[in-house]
Protein 1
Amino acid sequence: MMCRILTRREHDRFLKVTRSIRIAGHSTSIRLEAAFWETLDDMATVEGVPRARLIEQLHYEAVERHGVATSLASMLRTVCLLYQQEKIRAAPSTAEAGLIRN
C-alpha cells in the first residue's frame, strides 16, 4: 500500500530555497526545501524570535551539546522533523477530537 504523500502535496513545498543568515558574525547560506523553511517559520513564531535568530540559537545549542558544528542544513532538517513529531504527539488524536464516527 502506498501512502500517496507525494501526490497530496503542492509541488512548490519540495523546491529548494537558499537563504543567507549570519551566525557569530559570519555570513552563511543554507539550502533547504520550502517545507522546511515553513516549519522553521512556525518554530520561530512559537519561540517569538525571527527565523534567523532561531537558526543561530539552534546552531549554538548543537555546538554546545555535541562540541562541534555539524552540517547546518542536516541539523535543521532533523530539528524540523523532531518539531513536527512533537506537535503530532501533543495534538489530540482524531478519535479523541470526535472526528471519527462509528
Note: Confidence is low (pLDDT under 50) at residues 98-102.
Protein 2
Amino acid sequence: MQGSLRGNAGPRIRHVVEESAPYETITVDQVTPIIGAEIGGIDLSQPLSNRQQDEVHRALAENCVIFFRDQHITPEQHLAFGRLFGNLHTHPAAPHEPGHPELMVIHADKNSPRANGEGWHSDVSCDLEPPMGSILYIKKCPPKGGDTLFASMYAAYEALSDRMKTYLDGMTAVHDGEQVYRGLYANYGVADKPNYPRAEHPVIRTHPVTKKKALFVNRGFTRFLVGVPRDESEGILNYLYQHMENPLFQCRFRWRENSIAFWDNRCVQHRAMWDYWPHTRSGNRVTIAGDKPY
C-alpha cells in the first residue's frame, strides 16, 4: 500500500490479505486488498461438503467478511448454515421470527423511527462472550442505497503508532448495552428487560483463530477505559474511533436481493447506511456465539 494515514510521517497500512493457496470448491474475489471478498460457486440451499465448509471457514479468516450473491435459502437453511460455525447466539433485545429466537428480524421502512446498525459497532460487544460472527440475509432491497460498510480492526490496530500500541497493551474497557437497547425496539412491540448485558473486555484482543491482534472498542457499546481518568478515557476513545473509521480500512457492500454478508465480529466493525427512506430493506440475521475476548 502506498498511502499513509497522517501525512508523510504517518504509519503505513501493513495489513493486506496475503496470497493464499488456490481454492478448490469456491471462488474468492477480493473486494479490497484489506478486507472483504465475494464468494462464488456455492449454493447455500444445498448441504455443503466438508471441503466446502473448510474453504468457507478459510475465506472468512483470510478476508474478515465474505459475501454471497443470488442465494435462495429458507429460515431453516439459514440457521443450519450458521450452526456450521458454532452454537447460535440469541440477541438480548431485538425482535425475532416466531418460533425462531435465533433468527433476528432486520427491517426498516417508511414507518421506521430508525434502522438497524446505523452507527459503527461490533455486534453485542457488551456480552461477556460477544458473538463470533453474523450472517445477514437481505431479501428485500431499496432501489438505491442501503449499503453496509465494513472495517478491518486488524488494519486499524496495525496502523497505530508503536507508542499507542504500548499504551493500550493490557488495557480494558467497559461495554454496556443499557443505553443502546432500552426502548430501542419499542416500535416492534418488544418490551424492555430489567437489565442488559455489561462486560469488561481488552482494548486489544487476540483473534482465537488467526492469532492476530485487533482493536476491540466501538462507538456503540464502549463506555470508558478502565484505570484512567474519565477525561483521558474520553480523549483516547475518541481518537481510536476516528482512527478506526478511516476509509482505508474499509470495504463497502452494495446489497442486491437475496444477498448474504457473513462477517467476523472479532476483527470487524460495520455500519449500515439508512439513506433509502421511504423505501424498505428487510431480511434476517443469524448470529454465531463467541467466546470471552483475551
Note: The CA atoms of residues 29 and 226 lie 41 Å apart.
